[in-house]
Amino acid sequence: MVHDYCGVDWQTLSKMCTTLRRISAFRVLCSGASTRDPAFFRRRINATGCPQAHPVQKVVAAFRMLVYGEAADRADDYVRPFRSTILFLVKCLVACIVSKWESTFLRRPNNADLMTALYRNAERGFSGCMGLLDSSHWAWHQCPRGMAGSYQTRKGSRDIVVEAVCDEDLWIWHLFVGAPGSLNDINVMHQSPLYLDVTAGRWPPRNQSYTLNGTSCTLPYYLVDGMYPRYAFLMFPHPMPSTEE
Amino acid sequence: MERLFSVLTQRFHIALHPGRYRPVKMLVLTFKAICILHNMWVESRREGFLSRRRHAEGPYGGGGADAVDGDDEGSGNEDGNGLDGGPAGGGGSGNSGEADVAAVAAARGAAPSNVHAGANAPLLVNPVVQPPAGGMAAVFDAWGETRNVAEHEQLRADITAHVWNDRGDILAPYLSKSDSR
Questions:
Q1: What is the pTM of this model?
Q2: Among the four residues A97, A187, B156, B159, which has the most C-beta atoms within 10 Å?
Q3: Could you read off the pLDDT of A174-221 as tens digits, one per residue?
Q4: Are residues B59 and B107 in the same domain?
Q5: A245: nearest CA in chain B?
Q6: Residues of chain B with C-beta less than 8 angstroms from the C-beta of A234
């Protein structure tokens, strides 16, 4: 591996680690992975006394599957683990990332975050906007036949629906994955935790008022696209933008 | 928003190809991991995002069961963020009041959104500081308020006027010719 990186495969090195920041982030990931799940990411010695793959090898193999979307046996000549090992590694890495960093990087916005978002959007001309809400589909290749009915989309493929809220920097504030693909965006929203929180009054806090055209409101809103229902906390684009604006 | 999904699929091709796992739980986990990595990337690219992470570790993550995790994050980071946990936590709790935060955390911890306790519910690390004030009546009020169509119409009219007043000169060339304006 190290030989690959330092000598032969210079281009891959520069491609993968263009900046120092990325290298450090990668190193943090490696150390996090190896400390979090020591049973598998740690270097082990097998029954014959030979050392097994280095943690960096394992993490790189798993990341190649995540990032490049490769087949599991594509990377075995580059980073040496076997294909079933790589498959298992990806699962380990994913579980490790979620358990370790979900509370930091995929958390709910607190009040300070909401203030920041409101302030930034007010600067851009949308006072009271909390973020953008939309959903997308992710095809599910291995959908069991028994569940194909509920997961089949209107286009015919079997999907799961991903609902997300982001801001203009593409920071994801809310994520809701796993709804069956036969639901449209509205139905997904109706079972999303975000919607349940909003309609139960838990979120957003109403202690910040903003002024739009002389009217003062306290309920911030999400920007959505045109198919969402006309609720007070959703705002979709104007139906005839070329006439009034 | 469309940009987010295209960026995600371009950055992580596993989201571009059909998911190859059998259980839905694994798909959910994978997509969550992708989004976490994406957020990490966003944070490392943009300078202003360090503050958001400090928010995560500061006022709420500092106390209770997350203390160990927060300390671990702070010391494990290579950017010299060891100083962040302390001052941010102190400032945050000083602003909102320890008693308030503790009470809210206790209230939220007792019944943390069991309604959507499925595999997809995000982790409730940062409890919302404003709990529902008075039982079911408040819930029904919020239900009516957030689903109010009339309020939506008014808000949209206001936004239209606001945007027109604010950026009207930019939008003027795009007006249709037949319009009186």
A1: 0.66
A2: A97
A3: 889 888 888 888 888 888 888 888 887 777 777 777 777 777 777 888
A4: yes
A5: B164
A6: 152
Same domain, B152 and B107: no
Residues B40 and B123 in one domain: yes
The reply to whether omega before B87 is within 30° of 0 (cis) is no
Number of domains making up chain B: 2
Range A92-108 burial, b when 16+ CB lie within 10 A, else e: bbbbbbbebbbbbbbbb
- Residues B77 and B35 both lie in one domain: yes
Dihedral (Cα; B89, B91, B94, B98), 10-degree rounding: -10
What band does B174 get if pLDDT is binned at 50, 70 and 90?
low
Residue type present at position B43:
E
Interface touch A110/B129, C-beta < 8 Å: yes
Eight-class DSSP state of A217: E
> Between residues A144 and B56, which one has the greater pLDDT?
A144
pLDDT of B180 strictly over 50 = no
Residue B150 CB neighbours (<10 A): 9
Give the nearest partner residue to B15 out of A132, A138, A157, using CB atoms: A138
B35 at interface of A, judged by CB pairs closer than 8 A: yes
Chain B residue with minimum CA distance to A170: B4
Whether the predicted pLDDT of B127 surpasses 60: no
B31 and B95 inside one domain: yes
Query: Could you count the other beta carbons within 10 Å of the beta carbon of residue A163?
Result: 23
Residue B138 domain boundaries:
132-181
- CB contacts of A67 in chain B (<8 Å) are 11-14
Minimal-distance CA residue of chain B relative to A162:
B31
B175/chain A closest Cα distance in angstroms: 5
Q: Are residue B49 and residue B73 in the same domain, yes or no?
A: yes
